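Could someone model hypoxanthine with this protein?
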Amino acid sequence: MALQDQLKSTTDIIRQYFAEPIDVGVVLGSGLSNFAGQIEIACEIPYEDIPHFPVSTVKGHKGKLVIGTIGSKRVACLAGRFHFYEGYTPEQVTYPIRVLRALGSKVLLLSNAAGGMNPAFRVGDIMLIRDHISMFQTNPLLGPNDDALGPRFPDMSEPYALQLLALAKKGADSLSIPVHEGVYVGVTGPTFETRAEYKMLHLLGGDAVGMSTVQENIVAQHMGMPVLAMSVITDLGIREDLNTITHEEVLEAANSAEPKMSAIFKYVVEQL
Ligand code: HPA
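Reply:
Sure, complex below.
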């Protein structure tokens, strides 16, 4: 089935739950799903009830689309995302982003748990993403291009909208939440990095590393949708004394830093 037809059948079903156009799309990373608590919830749709959606397999990812309002803004929030390491194709990983756009989202907010490589970072810190480096050997736009969705060769000079970044910084400031700004390196996972790899990724210009976000960002750029993205630092890759890491530790650190991320996102949504 052509992508456009798939999108239509997906959005037709979602609109039976919530008919109005969405203003803001949000993706919540590992351990960050409590943000949904900020939403005046109109409906929650489990992914298995949404046609053409893959089903999430990772612990800590609830796997539902939460739709409702924050103030006057209509928000659709993916609580649980799809990762390349789960075996999904890049097209499947990014399909929900296309759905958010097709529902009307003018802006995309992405969050993730990430390993810190910048020596100034501590566990629990927030990094606003200014730019990214994709270490994925694949790209969600490989293959024939649907010109109705976006151009063959998308520009990537401002993958994270400077205007949204400035708004997030202003929000963090007014909420007295210290934030870093930096470069996110996207890797496939599912292994965490070796000591040598953390060092290399830092030398390449990365401040934090994680297993999501860049593919979603690429598809958002393809469709001309401005992105704000935020990492919660859950471990410190380049601290040789501290860099053993488990998924449980990532979830725990993300969970405890989640209120800071949620407060900044809420501020941004209200100010849009
Ligand atoms: N590396 C890759 N992905 C991650 C990390 C990390 O250190 N922490 C959380 N997600």
